[in-house]
């Protein structure tokens, strides 16, 4: 049975492990591509190398360098084509595809769009279709508040995910990114990358628990 048919007919039965995958900096290289485009657009302005990135919002760290930089930062990721052209995080696409084919498991993409949605919204769908295939378009959740979304696991690079629900139902696995390596993660498990295969251990661990 195809993934689409399985999703429609299984009715998300209780035995299914629901995995929520963030997009930016988990599947798509937001930070690396941001820095590349920023340097191309503003070659004479100061920049922060990835090894020195700290904190989730890029513009907050650039604001400490100079007052005019946050607007330039925004101009880079608000540009047409930015989200569409984000490169893949190494191994992310093959891991997501492999995960989506596992028995007893449903994978959803759970991503927060920019408030300046003009390009971001449609381009996130374009990215998914291009990298993961059209079947994945039925499994997209775009929300500003991930705490109200149902699921067992959320794999996300943002170290603290806040919202209306004080006790989200999912367990947050922190995906390592340049900006969060020194962040306090309140005892949450971390996933280093998609290439060493450890994500499979996390999935197997959760499967035993549900
Ligand atoms: C790093 C960074 C991200 N954003 C925006 C870009 C996306 O719309 C969301 C991604 O959030 P998610 O937790 O990965 O779903 O946040 C931003 O506005 N500024 C930044 O510096
Ligand atoms: Mg993210």
Automatic annotation (TrEMBL):
InterPro entries registered for this protein in UniProt: 5'(3')-deoxyribonucleotidase, HAD-like_sf, HAD_sf
Catalytic residues as annotated in Swiss-Prot or TrEMBL: 22, 24
GO BP annotation list: pyrimidine deoxyribonucleotide catabolic process
GO molecular function, one term: 5'-nucleotidase activity
Gene Ontology CC terms, in alphabetical order: mitochondrion
Endpoints of the signal sequence: none
Full protein name: Uncharacterized protein
Source species of the chain: Lottia gigantea (Giant owl limpet)
């Amino acid at each position: 049975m195809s993934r689409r048919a399985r999703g429609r007919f299984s009715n998300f039965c209780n035995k299914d492990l629901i995995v929520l995958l963030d997009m930016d900096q988990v599947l798509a290289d937001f930070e690396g591509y941001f820095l590349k485009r920023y340097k191309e657009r503003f070659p004479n302005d100061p920049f922060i190398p990835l090894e020195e990135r700290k904190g989730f919002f890029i513009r907050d760290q650039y604001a400490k360098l100079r007052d005019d930089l946050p607007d330039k930062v925004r101009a880079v990721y608000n540009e047409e084509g930015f989200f569409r052209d984000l490169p893949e995080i190494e191994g992310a696409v093959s891991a997501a595809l492999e995960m989506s084919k596992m028995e007893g498991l449903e994978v959803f993409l759970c991503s927060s769009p920019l408030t300046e949605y003009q390009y971001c919204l449609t381009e996130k769908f374009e990215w998914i279709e291009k990298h993961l295939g059209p079947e994945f378009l039925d499994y997209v959740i775009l929300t500003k508040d991930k705490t109200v979304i149902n699921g067992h696991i959320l794999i996300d690079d943002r170290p603290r995910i806040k919202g209306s629900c004080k006790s989200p139902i999912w367990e947050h696995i922190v995906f390592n990114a340049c900006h969060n390596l020194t962040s306090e993660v309140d005892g949450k498990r971390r996933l280093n990358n998609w290439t060493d295969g450890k994500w499979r251990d996390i999935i197997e661990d959760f499967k035993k628990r549900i």
